[in-house]
DNA sequence: CACCGGGGTTGACCTGCATCAAGGCGCGTT
DNA sequence: AACGCGCCTTGATGCAGGTCAACCCCGGTG
């Protein structure tokens, strides 16, 4: 996350704590003051668990900076990431006290947290908030469905290319070469894609060898030709993935 | 769908057109009359396309009887089912005119359809409706995440067992042997599970051979021991899949 | 009756990814 | 410097599931 992004996030935070992003047109003054009253900030370091699977989740929150992951696991230890939270994404569902999945900080992460009971009261009181939350949920459903296509039908190479494209898109600075900091370890990438670490690694080197991407260090990702990357991703060049 | 189910569905329909299911506690008289005014019914036959991928979708709807599927496809023809709609499920997102995926009738299917502009007006007017829709969306997100775990990490045998368990659960009559009519062809099952037809077929015969399930005809599914089936599914015996 | 066509099953073979194992690189610690 | 530890890469090998092809079953139709 660049200094500019941080500034934008905090700027927006004054405007609309739920989205932590550009002003919400429908924000109303009384909602904002009530939200202000119940919010608090907290930071986790990369790798720390924010909520354990099945544990009570006494808050709802939105991501201010950094990156967190939602993960479901099976008894024998197999794991699948089921949510990737970047700045402005929202965690926690009203009306459910327990988290059905583990929430982990992928990078250092700062959340803007809302006391759950107070937040639920706000929801029932003010239609605007629940409508905005509805919209965000619908976006999330679309993202999840795109993700299912990836998990169910794409090859390893397409999967990796798709993920890299998603990251580049979210971090887009505008002018080529596109440049982004990978917020995920190889392990997290594998978990996202339904692959193993080794396969992810092999596909990354293959994409490098074929000139589709370049790396500067382990985390620095550059791409001269997003079109080529999207072609590798098997998407029809739109890929409205991940809300 | 049995005659009893049908009766329940129509019964509930008078009560709450959105869910087409047990009475919604929060239904209010004026909402109901407005919903009544904008709704209409239509039936499709098994195999018919209800909405094409990318086409305009001039309505929102809820499933009254039968079964429909949402499918995303790639340019080269690979397809992945991303939604399975059973009675009481809802299709169509307010605020988006075009369907991002294909909707197909898996069995003969009857929808209760709402004119989209009118429905959107109702949404902004009455908070209850959007709150109920929010709840349903959140359930759908949870189901999608469970589904991702299946697509990303489960073996073919586990996938098939999981799907059969889901169907049995939704059709549950209570007493063993559990009995259900499979609403899906092998092709649709394969599409749901991210497998090929052949693999689904092989796993089905394997599960039969191992005494986990029995079939009466191609569509009739019986199970004497749901616990055994769930064990094969790799779930920790809860599996709150598919809302 | 023969014919056809659509859905399902089964077998033989192949391949893409997982698995297992070794080694490299960067970094903090003694 | 030497060591250990995370994280990543690379190679060798195996297997689950895809692919291709044949065949079955069943209901509809001329």
Second CATH tier, the architecture of the largest domain in chain A:
Sandwich
Helix content of chain A: 40-55%
Total discrete domains of chain A = 2
How many strand segments of chain A? 11
Sketch the topology of chain A as an H/E string, one letter per element.
Answer: HHEEEEEEEEHHHEHHEEH
Q: Unreliable runs of chain A, pLDDT <50, ≥5 residues?
A: 1-15, 239-243
Specify the overall morphology of chain A. Answer: globular
Protein described:
The structure is a homodimer of 243-residue chains. Chain A is α+β, with helices and mostly antiparallel strands. In chain A, 43% of the residues lie in helices and 22% in strands. The first copy, chain A, has helices at 3-15, 29-38, 116-125, 127-153, 156-170, 186-193, 197-209, 226-233; strands at residues 39-44, 49-51, 59-65, 68-73, 79-85, 90-91, 102-105, 109-115, 178-181, 214-216, 220-223. Chain A has two domains: 3-136, Jelly Rolls (Sandwich); 154-233, Arc Repressor Mutant, subunit A, CATH 1.10.10. Chain A has a four-stranded antiparallel beta sheet. A four-stranded antiparallel beta sheet of chain A has the order 2-7-4-5. The first copy, chain A, is globular and about 55 Å long. Chain A has eight helices and eleven strands. In chain A, helix 3 (116-125) packs across helix 4, helix 5 (156-170) packs across helix 7 and helix 6 (186-193) crosses helix 7 (197-209). Chain A binds a DNA duplex (30 and 30 nucleotides) through residues 155-156, 185-187, 195-199, 201-202, 204-205, 218.
């Amino acid at each position: 996350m660049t200094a500019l992004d941080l500034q934008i996030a905090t700027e927006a935070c004054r405007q609309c704590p739920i989205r932590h992003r550009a002003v919400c047109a429908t924000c109303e003054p009384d909602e904002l003051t009530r939200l202000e009253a119940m919010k608090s900030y907290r930071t986790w370091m990369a790798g720390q668990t924010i909520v354990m699977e099945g544990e009570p989740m006494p808050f709802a929150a939105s991501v201010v900076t950094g990156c967190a992951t939602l993960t479901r696991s099976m008894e024998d230890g197999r794991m699948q990431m089921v949510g990737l939270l970047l700045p402005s994404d929202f965690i926690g569902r009203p009306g459910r006290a327990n988290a059905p999945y583990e929430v982990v900080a992928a990078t250092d992460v700062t959340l803007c947290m809302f006391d759950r009971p107070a937040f639920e009261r706000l929801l029932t009181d003010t239609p605007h908030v629940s409508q905005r939350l509805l919209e965000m949920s619908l976006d999330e459903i679309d993202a999840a469905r795109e993700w299912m296509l990836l998990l169910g039908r794409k090859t390893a190479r397409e999967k990796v290319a798709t993920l890299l494209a998603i990251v580049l898109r979210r971090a887009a600075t505008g002018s080529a070469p596109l440049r982004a900091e990978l917020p995920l370890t190889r392990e997290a990438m594998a978990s996202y894609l339904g692959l193993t670490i080794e396969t992810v690694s092999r596909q990354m080197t293959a994409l490098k060898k074929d000139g589709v991407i370049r790396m500067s260090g382990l985390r620095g990702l550059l791409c001269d030709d997003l079109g080529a990357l999207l072609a590798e991703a098997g998407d029809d060049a739109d890929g409205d993935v991940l809300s």
